[in-house]
Amino acid sequence: MTEAVFQKDSYLTELDATITAVDEGVIELDRTIFYPLGGGQPGDSGWLEAAGGQRFAITDTRKGSETNSILHFTAAPDGEFKPGQSVRIGIDWERRYRHMRMHSAMHLLGSLIPVPVTGGSVGAEKSRLDFDVGDHILDKEALTEKMNLLVAQGHDVVLESITDDELSAKPELVRTMSVQPPRGVGDIRMVRVMDVDFQPCGGTHIRNTSEIGTVKISKIENKGRQNRRVHIVFA
């Protein structure tokens, strides 16, 4: 089991941890600030530093097969690390922060399009959300204007939690058709953009929409009779 420190503090860039398992350069730690691939957001990259000061790249982060285990894929040679070793880890903050800004921007976009979300992908340069639009008409310029207004208004982004039963009583809170929040593992993590959006999410986010910066809808693609893919980029 890995303590997911990033779920409580997305801004922490370095952390001391202890190795709990090693398998051919894939390292598991007792706690981590590295977000693992999931929910449309890429896994973090960064570095791992041994006691002697030598650093090795962490090229990717993924969820393990065991519940709550997080695997760090490193460039370290076999035998370099062993369980029980203390290490220091650090994320590629510039890349992570862009993911945080983008992920929060996607929540803003979703709040403006009141239809089910069929898929999505977070990127450092561009992101996308897919919508089952039905008869809803999407306008690229209007969406860009409305998103940037929400950014400029500076809405706080806060973390909350609800129980399985509370979420079951309000199924409309789950906007995504392709990704469902885990059930039966304790309280469900919720992300609230004050006065704008409230939904389950395990990703990393900024603290205030003003941090997102200017964005624009670069294109809207037809992906089926009712499916539309909306692309977001930093302006």
How would you describe this structure to a colleague?
- This protein is α+β, with helices and mostly antiparallel strands and 235 residues long.
- 17% of the residues lie in helices and 37% in strands.
- It has a 6-stranded antiparallel beta barrel with strand order 2-3-7-6-5-8.
- β12 (188-193) and β13 form a beta hairpin.
- It is elongated, with a radius of gyration of 19 Å.
- The N and C termini lie far apart (40 Å).
- The mean pLDDT is 93.
SSE topology sketch:
Layout: E1 3-4, E2 14-23, E3 26-29, E4 31-32, E5 46-49, E6 55-63, E7 70-74, E8 86-91, H1 93-112, E9 117-121, E10 126-132, H2 140-153, E11 157-162, H3 164-169, E12 188-193, E13 197-200, E14 215-222, E15 227-234
Order of helices and strands: EEEEEEEEHEEHEHEEEE
Gap between N and C termini: 40 Å
The CATH superfamily of the largest domain is identified as Threonyl-trna Synthetase, Chain A, domain 2
Task: Detail the poorly predicted runs.
Answer: none
Indicate the CATH class of the largest domain.
Alpha Beta
Helix content: 10-25%
Instruction: Write down the Rg.
Output: 19 Å
Q: Write the CATH fold name of the largest domain.
A: Threonyl-tRNA Synthetase, Chain A, domain 2
Assembly type of the chains comes to single chain
Domains counted in the coordinates: how many?
2
Give descriptors for this structure.
elongated; alpha+beta; four-stranded antiparallel sheet; 235 residues; six-stranded antiparallel barrel; Elongation Factor Tu (Ef-tu), domain 3
